[in-house]
Amino acid sequence: MTATTPISATLIDGKAFAADLRARIATQVRSMKDNGITPGLAVVLVGEDPASQVYVKSKGRMTREVGMNSYEHRLPAETSQDDLLALIGRLNDDPDVNGILVQLPLPPHMDEAAVINAIDPAKDVDGFHILNVGRLATGQKAMVPCTPLGCLMLLRDRLGSLSGKNALVIGRSNIVGKPMAQLLLRDSATVTVAHSRTANLPDLCRQADIVVAAVGRANFVQGDWIKPGATVIDVGINRGDDGLVGDVDFDAAARVAGAITPVPGGVGPMTIACLLANTLTATARANGLPDPQGLTP
Ligand code: GUN
């Protein structure tokens, strides 16, 4: 493949998919409101991390756009962990709050696991609480982390059944890599999880029908690692001199892959849409209603 080889892959339009998902969520929010229930999402930001501030702002805006109540709590970086835990306790007890998200990373003096595990698992719309992690791993009804859920929706939309497909997840974070592997396994894919110590990553990649790249290194996955016709999901959001780039060398991979997500406009918009989907699911469950259609795995 050379730079003159035309791009052959189908572009997976996460932006359009997410807009459609939000429209479906808004419809379901309207019918909940007709029955006197307004879903509410509380987002907690500690400190002034610039990227986190951007995320929190757009989470609030999109929450309101689908008709949900948005509650934003911005705390100074030097807030004590006890004060944060006290706020989480109040949100756990507040019947108007159906979902709670504590934006990560937290300042270094805080114990991230202790904070996350203080959230009521029924309101844990990030799916990071240890109970939800365990439920996902054992095939029980869980809250599922938003970014992997979004990737799964795009994969199912593109491929239908994932059964028997070779899937390679590159990255083993608690937020993306590990839950992504669990979701793929649940859909009967054959799953390999690669990481910084993996030997022969290019060879592993060449056997993969599905590649999910979540390593946080710009243009890390090379075009000649991609199996012809493979489906490539790029979770990376790397800020460089040329703006946002993914973890996959897009120009080269798109000449080999069958389908690929762009950056931006691929996985990114799916994350917030899935956060809203999880908030709707949490609201339905809290009110004894069936899970909303098509929003849970
Ligand atoms: N920081 C980066 N991604 C995420 C996410 O999905 N949830 C939370 N809470 N913080 C994040």
The overall pLDDT, averaged over residues, is 97
**What is the CATH superfamily of the largest domain?**
NAD(P)-binding Rossmann-like Domain
Helical content class: 25-40%
* Morphology: globular
Quaternary assembly: single chain
Describe it.
The chain is of the alpha/beta class and 297 residues long. The protein has 2 domains: 87 residues, Leucine Dehydrogenase, chain A, domain 1 (Rossmann fold, 3-Layer(aba) Sandwich), CATH 3.40.50; 124 residues, Rossmann fold. Strand 9 and strand 10 form a beta hairpin. The longest helix is centred in the N-terminal third of the chain and has 21 residues. The mean pLDDT is 97. The structure holds guanine. Guanine binds next to strand 4 and helix 6.
Output the keywords.
297 residues, 11 strands, alpha/beta, Rossmann fold, 39% helix, 6-stranded parallel sheet, 3-stranded parallel sheet, binds guanine, 10 helices, 2 domains, globular
Draw up the topology in text:
Elements: E1 10-11, H1 14-34, E2 40-46, H2 50-65, E3 69-75, H3 81-93, E4 99-102, H4 112-116, H5 130-137, H6 146-159, E5 166-170, H7 177-186, E6 190-194, H8 201-206, E7 210-213, E8 231-234, E9 238-240, E10 243-245, H9 250-253, E11 259-260, H10 268-286
Parallel strand pairs: 1-11, 2-3, 2-4, 5-6, 5-7, 7-8, 8-11
Antiparallel strand pairs: 9-10
This protein binds guanine (GUN).
Subunit structure: Homodimer.
Keywords: Amino-acid biosynthesis, Histidine biosynthesis, Hydrolase, Methionine biosynthesis, Multifunctional enzyme, NADP, One-carbon metabolism, Oxidoreductase, Purine biosynthesis
Catalytic activity: (6R)-5,10-methylene-5,6,7,8-tetrahydrofolate + NADP(+) = (6R)-5,10-methenyltetrahydrofolate + NADPH; (6R)-5,10-methenyltetrahydrofolate + H2O = (6R)-10-formyltetrahydrofolate + H(+)
